[in-house]
User: Fold this.
Amino acid sequence: MSRGGKGANAWVLGEGRRRGRVTLLNPAPMRDEARDLVALADYLTPNETETERLAGVVVRGAESAAAAARALRSRGAGTVIVTLGAQGALACTADGLVRAPALPVAVVDTTAAGDAFNAGLAVALGEARALPDALRFASATAALACTRRGAQPSLPRRDQVETLLGARGAAEARLNRRRAAP
Assistant:
């Protein structure tokens, strides 16, 4: 969330809505103001702790994350995407739940994982990708950010994200061919 004056976040989200733009709210760092912004978010992306504070529901896994996300949707958020660290992300939409597994990487530092996830999600949504694909892109962006120390130095370039997704896709295709072989 912006550290601008009180009301800056509400103004930006409200102005985005007024202009017919897609709004995305990452409530980190969590402040009480975020509760008043939930209904202005087309996409709300809290982590487990932020989800608990916003929804008043203890989050201890996918099932409780889904319950909390549904509670936040009932308060006006369009799609709620709870980031679950190594367990990936869970999106709650009007049509149901969408899971996005975390990509396995050698974790060095998770400092920028949330910011990277949100940046990847914003890029993918801006390209009008379907939500499952946007979540994969966001997860890959976050995974790569965990492989280097620091916040800004760990943020990956687009080509690195696409390479990771391409390598994962190739590995999945090989595995599927093996499964299909007699």
Observations:
- The longest helix spans residues 158-180.
